[in-house]
Write a structure and sequence with these properties.
The complex is a heterotrimer of chains A (470), B (338) and C (310).
Chain A lengths: L31 H10 L2 H23 L20 E6 L29 E6 L2 E5 L8 E7 L11 E5 L7 E4 L8 E8 L4 E10 L4 E3 H6 L16 E4 L13 H37 L1 H16 L2 H12 L8 H29 L1 H8 L4 H37 L11 H9 L7 H28 L8
Chain B lengths: L5 E14 L2 E14 L3 E5 L6 H9 L6 E10 L2 E2 L5 H7 L4 E4 L13 H13 L3 H14 L5 H5 L8 H13 L5 E5 L7 H18 L2 E6 L2 H7 L2 E6 L2 E7 H6 L4 H9 L48 E4 L2 E3 L21
Parallel strand pairs in B: 3-8, 3-9, 6-7, 7-8
Antiparallel strand pairs in B: 1-2, 1-4, 4-5, 9-10, 10-12, 11-12
Chain C lengths: L1 H26 L15 H11 L5 H13 L14 H36 L4 H15 L2 H19 L12 H31 L2 H8 L4 H19 L1 H18 L5 H11 L2 H29 L1 H5 L1
Helix pairs in contact in C: 1-3, 1-12, 4-5, 4-7, 4-10, 4-12, 5-7, 6-7, 6-10, 7-9, 7-10, 8-9, 10-11, 10-12, 11-12
The chains are: A alpha+beta (470), B alpha/beta (338), C mainly alpha (310).
């Protein structure tokens, strides 16, 4: 304690000027929902998740309209490919067998080590439908073997894939039709004495042109079905590009993703909305009425919960329809509805029970409010919060379930695409073309993740007890 | 305030809390001392810094808070520089603490007797059996009937008042020299309050324990305290004996607190409140913390830190009204209770 | 405690009855008589099946027969494999699924407790962030994708190493179980890790931890006796649904890793429309899950005195 000997200047002893803080300065009143919105807006993860969801929904709604490609159109010649642009392809009309005049072969056969390399290996035509090679006969050769490699052979044993050999005597030509791509190939022709191959090799570099067969072009609708090969003037047709590539049946992946997204998200959102709504209604009634009615209703809900979920989903799915021509979407939604409602019923019932005993409800009752008024004005906002959170978590649950069921073949029926069935299809080509699995799996994961993150953020924002960090 | 016989001496304590919005100066230059066997009541409203002071003394400040200045000494030994390992020997053994909410202050999955015995095992090295027996004796001392049975029960089987008594038993099990009680009766109803407070007084007499009692309830202060320190906005604005505080108030805030208590003869009249709200401690005012709400405020009150003035033999207050140059009385003219 | 267990057992029995009834009536909503599906069923077998299941009798009588059979533990004979009893199918293949499931559950739970506690201790620092990213991955990537990718990765690994470190499919020894169990436990484990973390954080802020610190107890003692024990409670409650989720997820893992478990058999039966196997498996799994939930409840009761003694 100090004894200040310093005197105070007299004017400082004057009363202080009026201080505005004496008037209470409270925050401008915000309603509950305004606070919730504000909290959400300040949570960066929630914003990202919400944007992702909105983008996804927009994409599957508008995408198929913007990108008009039929997801069911097969393209067996372009199966399991990576992303490609639209390209002009040569229209190949003649697909019959190709023959050249055989070379005279009255020479006596020589042993393999005496055989020279074929001279003047040339290309008659080279496109991705077939590559036609021919060469000059090697004296004494009985037949010829043809190899194909994707790089120039470095040694005698590096000739690459043995794609075949000539069969007829004196045949000095060969047509390769094996999985040709428009890239550089190195063909090697080797003479043989019928048992062993010669040491000498003739190699030729060939880059086939992108081409498409007549029938295939008709199948894909690039050429009208009624047209005749001899009358069709166009040399080339435009092959559609595939921004994300194709699946194992040649169907455009991007188109399938859009349509599959529609299916998956539709099932996810509708089923979730329906069963949360049904459950909420059931639970609200049970909670509000109380007594033995509540007990009975909850007992029934417990029974439904005890049913093994997946097994019953499958049972219901079978029961509701495996008829041909149906997409299977409706049975799936109904099955999900029947199996998933108890969770939200329990949640809402718990909330209603709690709210009934809350002080402010008692106060409202005492003040003379009617039951209806109490429900709407006091209970509904709180219950709504719980329902909203339940809904946000129900959607990814439904998406997951649909994906799972489609995976084991109990979901949507082909050719209706869904992200789940696409994943199932994608697995068989995992080693060769992983994109077929990755794209739909990524879509599922992103949407599930976004909804989960949003659900978490929503739950925090709606909880009045969560203290805001200073 | 002599520091030779004081059990606890706090000098110029500063505690700062790191918050997202900045640094909050929760405790600003607090000094106090408690003698052996006596009680100091630390009074103030929520947010004035009294809990933070208590936590700082016990070394239990949350991670975001830290002592940023000043000293804390227990029986002459500096506490504010202890390592965590040394603190663990002090807490429980030399300083005991009782908190506000008894219903949640005990581990729900552990028997009550075991939780009391835990202290004894850790600090006194007693065997589990001995410690448990001692725990039962402590519960008996706290006047809990059928103590042996109770010791084997779980917290959810106790009532609020009984739990608080068990918690006091836990805090004093190792016979600490200082007991800090942070609002020990706030969550209890009035009759139970009296029992608990009575118990604390008895224990104090028996063991010569110093008691730091934190409360916002002047009624509790009246029952318990030898000395009182009033806190506002992180500072101690008045300290003295209970009589001084109640009958010779030396600060307008204390006066306001007293007047806010409803009295029987005030029936029909509105409650008197202190208008306004405490200052934001993110940016504490440079002058008196109560300046914005004080009816007697003068210009000098806003100019720099207010020194402490003597108002009596052992009675001090941080208010310019106590300056010899100032003639005004502190109490207002409403017909108060002097 | 005993009364509690008995009550739950009784309610469990009623639940199983409900499951059996629901299964029966659902299957009979399927249009057409099961036998009328184009199966090459010889007349004697047709007559046998008719007699045994009373397929020409009114629905209610069929139901009574069905329940009667079930009470005797007889699930009938497989439709597609006329010489195999459903009971035998279950008996042969369920232990495989059970073993896989138990292993997956152990991995999931142990992992969740460990990683969840670790994550909570290092809250908002890099270990926490890393673990949470892994958890997000585990929660949002569908199980079948993880299984497929794991198999592919294993294939590549074996190829790169030049020998088979772990087989990519089949069943036989421990080496066959490891990867499938890991994959199966991942989704459930991720969810449980997150739960454990938030539970630990909630307990960390609890008043009784403050009391424990005020008592001057050491960090390890506080962690094990006060924090962990209470934080485990919500995780244990979720064991029931976790077992259900592992059962479900097991189907896919069995399919992808060619494990001869009951799940794979069930999917096969569904694709072949083998009604008796479908129904029998469903009721069996239903009863199994009811039993598991009961076991978990009892376990929880043992650990939380509030449940045990009230």
């Amino acid at each position: 304690m100090s004894e200040p000997s310093t005197a105070i200047a007299p004017e400082l002893l004057q009363p202080a000027p009026p201080r505005p803080e004496l008037e209470s300065s409270a925050h401008p009143g915000r309603t509950y929902w305004q606070q919730v919105a504000r909290r959400l807006a300040r949570n960066p993860r929630a914003i990202v998740a919400l944007s992702a969801i909105v983008l996804l929904l927009l994409a599957v709604a508008i995408g198929p309209w913007l990108y008009r490609v039929d997801p069911a159109r097969l393209g067996l010649g372009t199966a399991a490919q990576g992303p490609s642009r639209a390209q002009a392809a040569l229209l190949v009309r003649d697909s019959g067998e190709w023959r050249l005049a055989p070379a005279p072969s009255d020479e006596t056969p020589r042993a393999a080590n005496a055989l020279a390399a074929p001279a003047r290996v040339s290309v008659d035509s080279a496109n991705t439908e077939r590559v036609r090679l021919y060469w000059q006969a090697v004296p004494g050769a009985t037949r010829y073997h043809v190899y194909r490699n994707t790089h120039a052979p470095r040694t005698r044993s590096d000739l690459g894939l043995p794609i075949g050999n000539t069969t007829a005597r004196g045949q000095v030509y060969y047509e390769d039709r094996l999985l040709l791509r428009p890239r550089e190939y190195f063909y090697s022709v080797v003479a043989s004495d019928g048992v062993d191959e010669a040491g000498a090799v003739a190699t030729l570099s060939v880059t086939p042109q992108l081409a498409i067969g007549w029938l295939e072009a008709q199948l894909q609708g690039l050429v009208p079905a009624s047209a005749e090969p001899s009358q069709w003037r166009e040399e080339k047709v435009l092959l559609p590009g595939h921004p994300l590539g194709t699946d194992y049946l040649g169907r455009d992946l991007l188109a399938r993703l859009w349509y599959g997204g529609r299916t998956s998200l539709f099932i996810g959102v509708t089923a979730a909305l329906l069963y949360v709504a049904l459950g909420a209604l059931y639970g609200a009634v049970a909670g509000f009425v109380g007594g033995w009615v509540d007990d009975a209703m909850m007992r029934f809900a417990d029974f439904v919960v005890a049913l093994p979920f997946l097994l019953f989903m499958v049972l219901l799915r079978i029961a509701f329809g495996i008829g041909p021509g149906e997409s299977g979407v409706l049975p799936l939604v109904v099955a999900l509805l029947l199996m998933s409602w108890p969770a939200s019923a329990r949640l809402v019932r718990g909330q209603v029970l709690q709210l009934r005993e809350e002080a402010y409800v008692q106060v409202a009752r005492l003040a003379g409010g009617s039951s209806f008024y109490i429900i709407v004005r006091h209970m509904l906002p709180n219950v709504l919060a719980v329902i909203l959170v339940a809904l946000t978590f129900a959607i990814p649950q439904a998406i997951f379930t649909e994906a799972f069921l489609s995976f084991i073949g109990m979901g949507v029926t082909p050719p209706t695409p869904s992200w789940g069935s696409m994943s199932n299809d994608g697995i068989r080509n995992l080693l060769v073309h992983p994109a077929e699995l990755m794209w739909p799996a990524a879509c599922i994961s992103v949407s599930v993740l976004a909804f989960n993150v949003l659900g978490d953020a929503l739950r925090d924002a709606l909880d009045v007890n969560v203290q805001e960090r200073l | 305030m002599s520091s030779e016989t004081s059990v606890l001496t706090v000098s110029d304590l500063d505690v700062r809390i790191r918050a997202r919005a900045g640094v909050v100066q929760a405790v600003r230059g607090v000094s106090l001392a408690i003698e052996a066997g006596s009680t100091l009541a630390l009074v103030g409203e929520s947010g004035c810094g009294k809990s933070m002071t208590a936590l700082a003394i016990a070394g239990l400040l949350p991670a975001a808070a830290a002592v940023s200045g000043g000293q804390i000494a227990l029986r002459g030994r500096r506490l504010d520089q202890l390592s965590e390992a040394e603190w663990r020997r002090v807490r429980g053994a030399e300083i005991g603490m009782v908190f506000q909410n008894p219903m949640t202050s005990l581990n729900p999955t552990m028997r009550v007797g075991e939780q009391i015995a835990e202290s004894l095992v850790v600090h006194r090295g007693m065997s589990a059996g001995d410690a448990l027996a001692q725990a039962v004796r402590l519960l008996e001392r706290m006047r809990i009937p059928r103590a042996a049975e109770r010791a084997r029960q779980y917290p959810f089987e106790f009532s609020g008042g009984m739990l608080q008594r068990a918690l006091i038993a836990l805090a004093v099990a190792c016979e600490p020299v200082l007991l800090i009680a942070d609002e020990p009766t706030t969550a209890l109803d009035v009759t139970v309050q009296r029992e608990v407070l009575g118990l604390l007084r008895e224990l104090q007499r028996e063991r010569g324990m110093a008691l730091l009692l934190i409360t916002h309830d002047l009624g509790v202060v009246a029952q318990m305290a030898a000395r009182v320190a009033v806190m506002y906005a992180g500072q101690i604005i008045e300290h003295g004996t209970a009589d001084d505080i109640f009958f010779a108030t030396a600060h307008p805030y204390t006066s306001g607190l007293k007047q806010a208590l409803p009295e029987r003869h005030q029936r029909g009249q509105g409650l008197r409140v202190i208008k306004g709200a405490p200052p934001d401690l993110l940016h504490p005012p440079s002058g008196c913390g109560f300046y914005a709400r004080c009816e007697h405020a003068m210009r000098v009150c806003a100019e720099g830190a207010v020194p402490e003035f003597r108002a009596g033999a052992d009675h001090g207050g941080r208010c310019w009204l106590l300056h010899p140059q100032v003639q005004k009385p502190i109490e207002c003219e409403d017909g108060g209770h002097e | 405690m005993l009364a509690y267990v008995l009550k739950r057992l009784l309610s469990g029995a009623i639940t199983v009855w409900f499951i059996a009834t629901a299964t029966f009536f659902t299957m009979h909503v399927v249009p057409g008589n099961p036998l009328s599906a184009e199966k090459a069923v010889s007349p004697e077998i047709r007559r046998n099946l008719q007699a045994r299941y009373g397929l020409d009798q009114p629905l209610f009588k069929q139901y009574v027969l069905y329940i009667g059979n079930m009470l005797r533990g007889d699930f009938g004979i497989s439709y597609t494999q006329q010489n195999r009893r459903v009971n035998d199918i279950i008996r042969d293949h369920f232990p495989v699924s059970a073993l896989l499931g138990v292993l997956a559950l152990c991995i999931a739970t142990a992992g969740a407790v460990f990683w969840g506690a670790l994550s909570a201790q290092f809250r908002d620092r890099w270990p926490d962030t890393l673990i949470m990213v892994a958890v997000i991955f585990g929660i949002s990537v569908p199980g079948f994708v993880v299984a497929a990718m794991a198999q592919w990765a294993l294939l590549k690994l074996n190829h790169a190493l030049g020998f088979t470190l772990l087989p990519i499919a089949g069943w036989g020894g421990f080496q066959h179980m490891l990867v499938p169990a890991l994959v199966l436990g991942l989704g459930v484990g991720a969810y449980m890790t997150r739960l454990m973390r938030s539970s630990m954080l909630e307990v960390a802020g609890a008043d009784y931890l403050r009391t424990a610190r005020a008592k001057g107890l050491g960090a390890w003692r506080i962690f094990f006796r006060h924090q962990l024990r209470n934080a485990l409670l919500p995780v244990i409650t979720v064991l029931g649904p976790a077992i259900a989720a592992i059962t479900t997820g097991g189907f896919v893992v069995e399919l992808i890793f060619a494990i001869p478990g009951l799940g794979r058999y069930f999917v096969q039966a569904v694709q072949e429309l083998d009604y008796t196997v479908i129904m029998g498996t469903t009721v069996f799994y239903g009863a199994f899950l009811v039993l598991m939930v009961l076991a978990v409840d009892i376990l929880y009761g043992l650990i939380d005195p509030r449940i045990r003694l009230r």
